[in-house]
Amino acid sequence: MDSVSQLALGAALSVTVMGRRMPVWQSALLGAVCGTLPDLDVFFDRGDPVSNMTMHRTESHALFYLTLVSPLISWLAGILFRLRGQVIRLWLAVWLALVTHPLLDTMTVYGTQFGLPFTDYPYAIGSVFIIDPLYTLPLLVGVIAALILRNRRGLRWNHGGLLLSCVYLLWSVFAQQQATDAARQAIARNYINSERVLVTPTSLNTLVWRVVVMTPGTYGEGFYSLLAPDQPLTFTFYPRGEALYAAHRDNPYVARMAWFTHGFFRMQEQNGHLWLSDLRMGEEPYYTFTFDLGPLNAPNGEVLPTRINSVRPPVSEMIGRVWQQLKAE
């Protein structure tokens, strides 16, 4: 999720755990910092853009490592805030703010390797968009109310915001399942030879869902609105570059992306260069992660990839597209 959501979640959890045992601003600050810490890995360069993408949310998001460092952070926080007699509760506040960061990230489609060092599998539920105001706003309102009121009423506001945000995540999983059922019915109805199916929410909501279906030679994209369930879900198909993949599957960057995206990727030739796109994030023809792997005839893996600057539609166009999809027009 975005940094604001992680900051707000960490602050809300810390305020909930500490209650009135320490000043609200201190517990909120502690939780906000701990909720943000795992994402500091973005400042480490892994050597190339593909590695930077696929190795984000790795060790710094691992539940095991975060648990190991939590006693040290809570001890330092106790010294900083001069808090005595609350060792276990302070540790719990720190630990929850740390470990809920990767767990919340797992709700997005990106991929979080929180099982390290035992497994490097990139877990991704994909039931919420990376930025979703309906998740974040209750947390912010609750924390701000607690900071302003500084009494039991403020703490109740914080509890309420935290509860609403959790309910929203549960709703997103339910909504995703509804969209997934509709997608599978449409695939069966149209006799589509699907290899795998991805269902994720469109920008800033959980009412309109994007469906990507991978076939042996193409990928299809369609949209499903929970507000118009009777509208047929149709797909537009595009080439996925199977011949290019067959020729370059030994390229370590191609292999890495194929693994990380769970097979939801596209390869294409652009001006004599090999381009690789992650189909999970974005919508046709706008994709967040597209990489230039160099000339087609270059030896596999010997050219460092470069990231193609993603072209995003204007905000007005994005809102218009979501609105049309919402009505299933």
TrEMBL record:
Spans through the membrane: 62-81, 88-104, 124-149
Superkingdom of this protein's organism: Bacteria
Keyword terms, alphabetized: Hydrolase, Membrane, Transmembrane, Transmembrane helix
One Pfam family of this chain: YdjM
GO molecular-function terms, A-Z: hydrolase activity
Protein name: Metal-dependent hydrolase
